[in-house]
UniProtKB/TrEMBL annotation, chain A:
Regions that span the bilayer: 20-39, 60-82, 102-121, 133-155, 186-206, 218-237, 244-264, 325-346, 402-423, 435-457
Keywords: Membrane, Transmembrane, Transmembrane helix
Lineage of producing organism: Bacteria, Pseudomonadati, Pseudomonadota, Alphaproteobacteria, Rhodobacterales
InterPro entries given in the database record: Gate_dom
All copies of domain Nucleoside transporter/FeoB GTPase Gate, residue ranges: 142-242
Protein name as it appears in the record: Nucleoside transporter/FeoB GTPase Gate domain-containing protein
Organism: Pelagivirga sediminicola
From TrEMBL, chain B:
The family this protein is said to belong to: Belongs to the universal stress protein A family.
SUPFAM superfamilies: Adenine nucleotide alpha hydrolases-like
Gene3D superfamilies the UniProt entry points to: HUPs (3.40.50.620)
Domain UspA intervals: 5-137
InterPro entries per UniProt: Rossmann-like_a/b/a_fold (IPR014729), Universal_stress_UspA (IPR006015), UspA (IPR006016)
Source organism: Pelagivirga sediminicola
Pfam families from the UniProt entry: Usp
Protein name: UspA domain-containing protein
Transmembrane segments: none
Length: 458, 138
């Protein structure tokens, strides 16, 4: 726990101090500028975050490539040493990073092996080909490495210093009116958009535990507004070669998400969920906007409150660094392994073709070019968010790649992360509910994405 | 003579019948044993989470609330409640060693095929813990 700077605490009168205002405004403005401000790119408009990722990739490609090798190999060896070898982690962080179960040990070691074999060119063709290693190690992971480095320091500017609460309060009445949800849900939804989908889910669960949401409201917020965050959307767009239409892409993701949010809470399975609060909690009054307050006043109050307890500069750097180390050493190697296994199955086995066989005629009927190549993306997104985009990367038709990228980030329920958290969160959602929500979202998103691609974007 | 410590790991991610296990624990508590209730938040693939540290804390906080609910409903006095994050069986074994537990009482619930292939948490704890393990079939 850090010492609290007296300048950061409210004055005796309860009014926020100058330091509190600065702590709210400076990081929020910086975060908004980094992730939300349109800037001219080499070909079209982009965001400064995208410019930074492209700059890192353009100028430090070799460094990123060998950093990836170092990260995956170090992670594989340390995980093996501390999980199954004689090593004992000395700190709680080391336990969290490197002591893990057999499945994750295997995935991290496989990730290291795949990365080394691809980078050195020593591996067989099914690892070094452009469709497998080239896509995962050569493109996705190098981008993710840069994304994690920038986002672990950049995203907290939006999520930890009051910006999320400020915008959430402004949207609270719209959420109540449009989606019949407590105003607080706007803040939890924004946590997904500006932070990460799992973070939005956990914030929703916390509000459910307090009695702010009923079971149905919590399930609705967690499954409908757990939107893929902006930086990851940028990486997906870049992966499928659509970064030059990023704003149109993100606008379509937003529009499709909005339509899904209007429909899903009104139909099963969400409409089946009980409208009762968690046992033992009373109906907590949603105090996002106080009586007599304007939305701007409420947003400013909530933003200042959040900024007051937010990490100071030293903690901000420390947290960012610790999160970066966690993501690089825990997630990156496992992501290499999962993505490589999926793409090897796509390229060298007929499994995904069998799975997606029923969807090919539907996509062909809808006039989707290369329907056979795009069809797997309709189903594989249930396993992991990256998979549809990875599969669709090699599709030649720009419109079809657009469809695949939209599905990648609009289906929302992927079992590798959000789905697993939802199942554990005691909101009454089971795997059947999640599968139904995934299918309904896909049914809504697919025709909308096809229409938007054909008539609006291209 | 030091007090016997009974470690009781519970899975708080679902509501299920713990009555047989808790009856067993209540018997030990009735004989003067102190009961430590614990849960492990299994590691998760946080592929799009930039604030992994904050996310893990949020999951552990939620588990702590659920563990508190379980403790309140338990038919015995709970001396301590512990939440860990990571691989489940090693987490239980670590806490048993740290708390000096003389006995672990654990539910065995899964009878599916994966348990035959990979082993259940209960079987791994029974195989590797340094203290006695009482596996209660739920």
């Amino acid at each position: 726990m850090s010492d609290v700077d007296p300048r950061d605490t409210p004055s005796d009168s309860g009014d926020p101090t100058r330091a509190n205002w600065l702590k709210f405004i400076i990081p929020s403005v910086l975060g908004a500028a980094l992730f939300l401000m349109p800037v001219p790119g080499p070909e079209t408009w982009t965001i400064p975050f995208g410019v930074a990722i492209d700059w890192l990739n353009a100028n430090f490609a070799a460094l990123l490539k060998w950093t990836l090798v170092a990260v995956t190999v170090t992670s594989g060896l340390l995980t093996l040493w501390y999980s199954y070898g004689p090593g004992t982690p000395k700190t709680p962080l080391m336990v969290q990073y490197f002591r893990t179960s057999a499945v994750w040990v295997l995935l991290r070691c496989l990730g290291a092996v795949f990365t080394v074999l691809y980078t050195t060119g020593m591996g067989p063709e099914w690892i070094t080909s452009g469709a497998t290693g080239g896509t995962v190690v050569g493109s996705l992971m190098v981008n993710l490495l840069a994304l994690f480095a920038l986002a672990s320091f950049g995203l907290p500017l939006l999520s930890d210093y009051g910006f999320m609460e400020f915008v959430g309060a402004l949207l609270s009445r719209a959420f109540r009116f449009l989606f019949r949800l407590p105003g607080r849900s706007a803040i939890d939804g924004l946590a997904s958009w500006l932070g990460a989908a799992p973070l939005g889910v956990m914030l929703t669960v916390q509000q459910y535990d307090k009695g702010v949401y009923t079971t149905r409201e919590a399930a609705t917020v967690a499954t409908t507004f757990s939107i893929v965050s902006i930086p990851f959307c940028y990486v997906i767009a870049k992966l499928v070669g659509l970064s030059d239409v990023f704003f149109a892409f993100y606008g379509c993701v937003f529009a499709i998400g909005f339509v899904c949010a209007l429909i899903l809470p009104r139909i099963p399975p969400l409409s089946w969920m009980p409208s009762s609060h968690k046992p033992g909690t009373s109906n907590h009054v949603d105090d996002t906007v106080h009586e007599g307050e304007t939305l701007i006043q409420a947003g400013t109050r909530l933003g200042l409150e959040r900024a007051r307890t937010a990490p100071n500069f030293v903690e901000f750097i420390k947290n960012g660094f610790e999160n970066l180390v966690f993501m690089w050493f825990s997630l990156v190697p496992a992501t290499v392994a999962i993505a490589m296994i999926a793409l090897i199955m796509v390229e060298y086995t007929p499994v995904f073709q069998w799975l997606s066989l029923p969807f090919v005629p539907i996509l062909e009927w809808a006039g989707v070019a290369e329907a056979k190549a795009a069809a797997p993306s309709l189903v594989v997104g249930f396993a992991d968010m990256y998979l549809p985009a990875l599969i669709g990367k090699s599709i030649e038709s720009q419109e079809t790649r657009f469809l695949v990228a939209i599905l990648s980030v609009s289906q929302l329920i992927y079992m590798s992360e959000v789905g697993a958290i939802l199942l554990r969160s005691n909101l009454g959602l089971n795997i059947g509910h999640l599968a139904m929500i995934f299918v309904i979202r896909t049914i809504i998103a697919t025709p909308l994405a096809i229409i938007l691609a054909k008539y609006v974007v291209f | 003579m030091s007090k016997e410590t009974v470690l009781v790991p519970v899975d708080v991610s679902s509501d299920h019948d713990r009555s047989r296990m808790f009856d067993e624990v209540a018997e030990h508590a009735g004989r003067g044993a102190q009961v430590v209730l614990m849960t492990v938040v299994p590691e998760i693939y946080l592929a799009t989470t930039v604030d992994a540290k904050g996310m893990i804390k949020a999951m552990m906080d939620h588990a702590a609330i659920r563990l508190g609910d379980v403790a309140t409903a338990a038919p015995f006095e709970v001396a301590d409640q512990i939440v860990r994050y990571g691989p489940v069986a090693p987490g239980i074994i670590d806490v048993a060693a740290e708390t000096g537990a003389t006995l672990i009482v654990i539910n065995a619930r899964s009878r599916d095929r994966t348990a035959y292939l990979l082993g259940s948490v209960a079987s791994r704890v029974a195989n590797h813990a340094r203290c006695s393990v009482h596996v209660v079939r739920a």
